[in-house]
Amino acid sequence: xxxxxxxxxKSSTPRKHQTAEPQDERIDPQDVTLGTLQRQFSTIAxxxxxxxxxxxxxxxxxxxxxxxxxxxxxxxxxxxAKELEERAAEWMKERPMEAALLSMGVGAxxxxxxxxx
Length: 117
Fold this sequence. Notes:
Number of strands: 0
Low-confidence stretches: 1-20
Helix content: over 70%
Largest sheet: none
Distance between the termini: 99 Å
Strand content: under 5%
Number of helices: 2
């Protein structure tokens, strides 16, 4: 009895979807040949190669962004340190007595810490 193509019963041959997604190609163990295995391994190898290329490209982009960001942070840190140095020098010129007392206090604190160890 011929099958009706519009019936809801399953056909004995699997239908391939017409999408761009990868197909799940199951192989009947009786139909396995060296050529079939070679084609599948070739497909897998090319897909793995493509994945490696994508990962490598993504990693290179991430490293480049990190290097750029590190350079920006370094420049910001150097600028901030120079600004703080200028402010400290200005403060010491405006308040020399306080600067001297502060340095003696810091020196005494360091001396007491070193003496205990």
